[in-house]
Amino acid sequence: MLGPLSKKLLLKVSGGVDSKVLIAARSTSRCVSAAYATASDLNQDAEKLGKDSAFTVSYLVDSCGFTHEAATAAAAKFSLKSAEKPDKVLGLLRDYGFAGGDISRLLQHRPELIVTDPELTLRPKLDLLASLGPTQELLVKVVLRCPEILQKSREKSLVPSLEFLRSMLHTDENVLKAMSRCNRLLWFKLPVLLGPNVEFLREVGMPDNLISAFLKDRPSAFLASAARLRVLVDRARQMGFDPKRRGFVEAVSAFAGMSDKTWERKVEVFKKWGWSDDELVSAFKKFPLCMTSSEKKVDAVMDYLVNTMKLDPSFVARTSKLVTLSLEKRIIPRCSIIHWLLSKGVLLMQDVNLSNALTVSEDSFLRTFVTKYVETLPELLDLYNQYKNGATAGIFRSVQGHDISKPSIKMKKSVASKILVADM
To answer: Where in the sequence is the domain holding 162, given as residue range(s)?
Structure first.
């Protein structure tokens, strides 16, 4: 039956309808009907899309901890038709130790993981990472630091990369250490990227055990392109570093971590504090990682050691590791405790090597300067902990009448010099 629009197109000729006109009218009718059908389908699709989008937003907000804005942005990329599949994804993540906050953080970085097949795609990758033997807590940390690894191909990328790391580092424990020091380590196809670097380092004389240590301890530097690594190695060798020694690895790592402009800025900071060119070179050769401290940190440490502790800048240059230590958590608390012990007369200046006292492990410092005197000075441990926790020094003013609020200021330069019995 012809619709109203088609009838208007019919022309009556001699009491009848021209056959050509009738055919045209019928064709037009079909086109109009198709147009109506297409519009109807689009409306239905739009309505359906709206429902899916609304459900997606609601699910991400209610079940995954998304904000409404983040959920809306994610819903523009994919839609959820029901809760069945995403619920399985969330359940799988919980089985591997991901808490609610972990899941929210993971999915907000990579929301499309919620539509990934949990059994065919996610579980095999998580099982592969779990085969390294980490605790669930560490496994979660590894994934959260680089969520992209759950989107890498298991067979083409993750398996070859882990096999490469195991062949270089020998134990899964070492593999985990390298991964914890470089978040995106498994993001790369390591045999392709690092294979040439390994061969080059062997060519310049670095032994395999040191190459392994380089990869484990400084993986970010090891990830440099082959061309970039050649430049860094040449620079270290020109400064006299031996590829067969640990310092070579640290020098290359220091160079890799900054641009030439950043290097120049740091050199100027040290020179501002009185270091000569020779002292700079000597300090770097002795402890290359001294150049990895930020300019702000170098300024703060040098200010305390030189202006407050009254130490000679040359001493700090000879003990360059000091500029890498925490001022608040190590240098100030330890200097304060040493001065307090000196003021009590229980510690003699000739028994103190300040450079060692500041650089030894926490356990060693506690044995030498705290627990050793706790019986006669029971307040000492609490005093040390309060310094470490950043308590204002003024709270110690009344300790047996001794003002130790600024212990290093009371220590005159001559006294400080006597404490510096030996370098590191």
So the answer is: 152-257
